[in-house]
Design a protein that fits this description.
Blueprint (H helix, E strand, L loop, with lengths): L6 H4 L16 H6 L15 E7 L5 E3 L8 H5 L4 E5 L24 E2 L5 E7 L2 H9 L5 E3 L6 H7 L2 E10 L2 H7 L2 E9 L11 E6 L5 E5 L4 H11 L7 E5 L13 H15 L3 E4 L2 H7 L6 E9 L5 E13 L5 H10 L10 E9 L13 H19 L3 H8 L23 H12 L1 H13 L4 E14 L8 E8 L5 E5 L8 H13 L6 E3 L2 E2 L14 H28 L7 E3 L2 E3 L5 E3 H10 L5 E7 L4 E3 L4 E3 L3 E14 L5 E10 L7 H21 L29 E6 L24 H12 L16 H12 L1
Parallel strand pairs: 1-12, 10-11, 14-15, 18-19, 28-29
Antiparallel strand pairs: 1-5, 2-4, 2-6, 3-5, 7-15, 8-13, 9-10, 9-12, 11-20, 13-14, 16-27, 17-18, 17-24, 21-22, 22-23, 25-26, 27-28
Helix pairs in contact: 7-8, 10-11, 11-12, 15-16, 16-17, 19-20
Bound molecules: ligand MTE, hypoxanthine and dioxothiomolybdenum(VI) ion (MOS).
Amino acid sequence: MNAPQSLHTLLQPGGALSGQELPHESAVLHVTGEAAFTDDLPELRGTLYAALVTSPVAHGRLVGPHNGVDKAALLREHGVVAVFTAEDIPGENNCGPIVHDDPFLAPDEVNYIGQVVAVVVAREMVYAREAVKKARLRIEPLPAILTIEDALAAESWVMPSKRIQRGDAAAALDAAPHRLKGSTRTGQQEQFYLEGHITYAVPREDGQLTLYSSTQHPEGNQKEAAAALNLQTKDVEVICRRMGGAFGGKEGNASIFSQSAALAAHLLKKPVKLRVNRDDDMMITGKRHDFRVDYDVGFDDAGRILGLDVMLASRCGYSMDYSGPVNDRALLHIDNCYHLPNLSVVGHRCRTHTQSSTAFRGFGGPQGMFGIETVIDEVARHLGKDPLDVRLANLYRASDDPDTLTTQYGQQIEDWVGDQVLAEVEARAGYRARRAEIAQWNAGHTGRKRGIAITPLKFGISFTATLLNQAGALVNIFNDGSVAVNHGGTEMGQGLNTKIAQLTADELGLAMARVRVTATDTMKVPNASATAASSGFDLNGAAVREACRQLRERLLPVAATELGCSAAQVTFADDAAHGPEGQRLPFATLASKAWAARVGLSQTGYYRTPEIGYDPAKLFGRAFYYYCYGAAVSEVEIDTLTGEWWLTRADIVHDVGRSINPALDRGQVEGGYIQGMGWLTMEECLWDTKGRLLTHGPSTYKIPVASDVPEAFHVHLFDGANVKPTPYNTKATGEPPLMLALSVFFALKDAVGAVAPGAGPVPLVAPATPERILLAARALRA
Ligand code: MTE
Ligand code: HPA
Ligand code: MOS
């Protein structure tokens, strides 16, 4: 069943540029420093600078006038022009992207250390930053809930828990020949985009406002700033040419800053720049949700999972932010690539007095998948089997029973190639032979141990909120034949605009040099979703393609007249329109002829993802348009006396469908894998007992660097195509590769386990820092 139609019939004709390894459209500008980020824009005369006063207390009541802020004292500081608090907001005080439960300036209560209470505006940035250091706040402290454990005990939730049930987990557990219980956890992760949060807010005539913001969601900033200032959406324009990285951290969180800047600019009628430093950025904004995962699994002698009961609990912080869909996505990815016939999984969304956890590449998926991969790993350890064999025993598979390709949320997997991808990386890496070699090597070494692991991944593509799966575009052809493309997506380094330019050029038969993808601008394409859920190209590319299709149709009669043939005979390629007998009309000529003939050369495009339909309340239905697959083999060596470790080799096979730009896609795969490795091994948020984040800069928070990339790094793009008609039959590439890094964690666990083979569960949780590796090795030895 589910055999895809012949790929040949599904593939759309690609033009000359699709599939080519073109460099990122801004590569040269990035390297020369010419690429304009928000902070590089020339400042207008009279520009003022803002800095933020933040709460030093995890939970407390703001008392006294001015929301607990001594405004008069701040106004006496050198160079300070104005101080704004919640009382100055004329409209709605909210930066919550889904539920409006999140004030951008604390009104009467503070709920985490780092929460913004006041905006201080000064003549120079240093004056603003110096002033906020001296801010005095009147706060009556209240008890704080800081950890998942505290929250579970207090039943402190940001929203009700949700559960997915399939089959009868309890009965299957009771009947299973083997049963294991355990608990594990994953850590928080800071997005650590290189360019920090920034907005440059410029007031315009008649109360209008332009926000130059580093944001994945210009429309969100626009809407929220308008609501805060009692303006209409039409009066606020948000522009973002590019971000210096985002990784989910600028999906909702940018509006904390854009609204603060907008408020100051609007009230002062002066341009205001707000650029926070790294420490403030890390103290104020949300991180990846850390999770606790408790499991109870029943299985047979082959390691087949017969029944599974899982509790997921995540630290959501003080407000909802994206915690609803993040935790839903964890529940929707608890299966990863495995058929779990009897499953009960519950997701608790813990409210704590910490930053509101937010989107981060994978959006809950990685945490769910970490849960099931831990279960598989421990089942294998219990049975003394190679974890690969337990993985294979549990994989989804095509059979006479459609249930073996049905997820716990009732979606049929129509494009299953997870088994092929896994088999390919196993073969390419020589996994079985190397496992044997490693076992032999370990037998001869005590201080050092090696480990290897192979993990598959399956990641669902679509926003789980069905309404977000839509996009718009505006394509303008000028009468010199050059083309400006606008779409609702944003460029954060992932290469979206390069892919869009390739697609546009091919759709109109143009050379790349003729196409410019413009800055994202809410006045050109309205109501755009955030560039997130890895669907930037699927959605915006399809909207651009639709606009190009309509433009082509309008140009055809003009071309036919000029070429002396019928419209049906005209083709577009090589920067020209062509007739059947070799006639050629340069595109520039065609554009000017069309203009002279008074043919409209500007066209919008619109797209919405078909087929999907899902009930988020019941967590049931077709949540995803399609799936991406991948698999990786990682090998590590650990020093059991120091906990140091080295990633010695990585082999990856990753499915990006038919790649429109393999160079960009390979970059996403490599970067995702390394970023995932950072999450699982070295990035660690540490807290003091009062709820203060201690790791708020690069000196204490370690992200992977170039030297952490394995010397042997073999990345291979799976030879496949999307069975769905996405532009060029590509698949999304943004988030899925992050989960390839699960193999690094389980390789480390394998290496630690080699310290005392057969000694039972390996007590290693994520992040597997050198300290944890050392402690786990010690515990096993004891
Ligand atoms: N790649 C780079 N270089 N920088 C980023 O900020 N964000 C990731 C991913 N890859 C990111 C990135 C995340 S979280 C997402 S959702 C996707 O890119 C968004 O872009 P896309 O939908 O165009 O893939
Ligand atoms: N993924 C990523 N970002 C999102 C989603 C999602 O499913 N929903 C809302 N924002
Ligand atoms: Mo990505 S976490 O969906 O911005």
